């Protein structure tokens, strides 16, 4: 039986907001379980531990550093055993306040405190997280953010991003030839695939030099500027070395997968003054950590809040109109939270994709507005008129949408857009 000590409970109005991180959990289990005791146990176990403590000094420390259950209710909330609902399975929401002093003002300890042993103890999901100003002040956030990326590219319209494919195995020369065609088609951003790695046969600096030479050539020919997101995912020390080599070779953007490398590895790069280029956080593993309704950490915490806090200038999520089963309301929430005010932390620009093509561009812009980066992969490769035309079709869809024209009408004007009308839903 868990001791329901008065010290484990508090009202949010009785706490100093700047002294606590507040985590909101969804607990689920059989009706006969003592769910209140589970929540109280979580508050204590994830802060000072579950033991009984003797001695006045220790008791004072426990009172100062222990977690506090500040809200608890069933879903749906009810007070009586008399209910017409099936109560054999119970869901509860608990909000727990964690003293900031416990967390070292760092993301690894934050995640350890919030979900450490708790993640091993049953059906529990961290569904929301409130960070006080005292915690935010320990982070610089994005160097560039949404406005910095826009300023570099010189446009306020929705951005178009393409992917160098095949994803792996291309030589530096082969990658640069494909890069050139994408850039001539009007891609604002060209990225490596998240599975792109380097070895003794292909060095990051060689691919960067080749692709940035193609970018320079397009700029000289057309005045169109392109951001290249070079993959550097690796163990943190090697990743930093790759980042520095890439920047020295002329890279103007870098890409990593912070859920596999560690979110603090992203922070390391963002705070290094030598890595003075935008950073793109790819969401690899986000499904494994967030997609379950019963376990893990909600996507807006990891993908929209913490990677932004750590310094991502660009983040990414799948659209609900492609190959991933992503709720429309969820992806809209993720994009909105990525740029919503967050103290001094700059907003991100969010890249959306995952099976996106020109004919769903109006849906995305209707959903989230102009501050979005549209990433197109397979449909560029498959365009019957070539790679440049595949990118042009997406640019044409953006132009028509912003002008308020139906794509069916625009396709009569633009051959590149008209050539893929078979994708129209």
What's the gist of this structure?
The protein is an alpha/beta fold and 425 residues long. It has helices at residues 35-45, 56-65, 107-115, 133-136, 145-153, 172-184, 204-222, 236-248, 258-261, 263-271, 286-290, 299-310, 328-339, 361-368, 378-381, 387-402, 407-413, 415-418; strands at 20-30, 68-75, 89-99, 123-130, 159-163, 189-191, 227-231, 254-256, 279-281, 296-297, 314-318, 349-353, 372-376.
Word description of this protein:
The chain is an alpha/beta fold and 425 residues long. The protein folds into two domains: 6-136, 2-Layer Sandwich (Alpha-Beta Plaits); 145-423, Ribulose bisphosphate carboxylase, large subunit, C-terminal domain (TIM Barrel, Alpha-Beta Barrel), CATH 3.20.20. It contains 18 helices and 13 strands. Strands 5-6-7-8-9-11-12-13 form an eight-stranded parallel barrel, surrounded by eight helices. Strands 2-3-1-4-10 form a five-stranded mixed β-sheet. Helix 6 (172-184) links the parallel strand 5 (159-163) and strand 6. The mean pLDDT is 92.
């Amino acid at each position: 039986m868990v001791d329901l000590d008065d010290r484990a409970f508090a009202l949010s109005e009785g706490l100093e907001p700047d002294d606590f991180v507040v985590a909101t959990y969804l607990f689920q289990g059989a009706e006969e379980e003592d769910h209140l005791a589970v929540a109280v146990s979580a508050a204590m176990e994830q802060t000072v531990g579950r033991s009984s403590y003797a001695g006045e000094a220790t008791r004072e420390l426990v009172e100062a550093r222990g977690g506090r259950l500040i809200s608890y209710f069933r879903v749906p909330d009810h007070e009586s055993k008399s209910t017409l609902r099936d109560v054999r399975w119970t869901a509860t929401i608990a909000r727990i306040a964690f003293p900031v002093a416990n967390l070292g003002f760092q993301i690894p300890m934050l995640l350890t405190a919030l979900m450490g042993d708790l993640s091993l103890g049953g059906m529990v999901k961290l569904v929301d997280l409130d960070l006080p100003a005292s915690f935010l002040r320990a982070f610089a956030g994005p160097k560039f953010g949404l406005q910095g990326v826009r300023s570099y590219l010189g446009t306020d319209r929705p951005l178009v991003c393409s992917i160098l494919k095949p994803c792996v195995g291309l030589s530096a020369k082969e990658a640069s030839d494909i890069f050139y065609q994408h850039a001539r088609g009007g891609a604002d951003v060209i990225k490596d695939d998240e599975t792109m790695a380097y070895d003794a046969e292909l060095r990051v600096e060689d691919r960067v030099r080749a692709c940035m030479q193609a970018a320079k050539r397009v700029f000289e020919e057309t005045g169109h500027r392109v951001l290249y997101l070079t993959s550097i995912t690796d163990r943190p020390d090697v990743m930093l070395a790759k980042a520095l080599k890439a920047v020295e070779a002329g890279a103007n953007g870098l890409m990593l997968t912070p859920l596999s490398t560690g979110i603090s590895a992203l922070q390391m790069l963002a705070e290094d003054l030598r890595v003075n280029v935008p950073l793109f956080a790819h969401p690899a593993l986000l499904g494994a950590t967030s997609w379950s309704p019963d376990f893990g950490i909600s996507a807006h915490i990891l993908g929209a809040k913490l990677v932004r806090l750590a310094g991502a200038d660009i983040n990414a999520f799948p659209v609900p109109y492609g190959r991933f089963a992503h709720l429309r309301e969820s992806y809209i929430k993720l994009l909105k939270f990525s740029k919503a005010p967050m103290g001094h932390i700059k907003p991100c620009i969010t890249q959306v994709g995952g099976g996106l093509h020109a004919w769903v561009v109006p849906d995305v812009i209707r959903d989230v507005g102009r501050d979005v980066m549209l990433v197109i992969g397979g449909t560029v490769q498959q365009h019957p008129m070539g790679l440049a035309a595949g990118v042009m079709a997406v640019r044409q869809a953006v132009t028509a949408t912003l002008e308020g024209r139906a794509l069916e009408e625009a396709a009569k004007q633009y051959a590149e857009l008209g050539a893929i009308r078979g994708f129209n839903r």
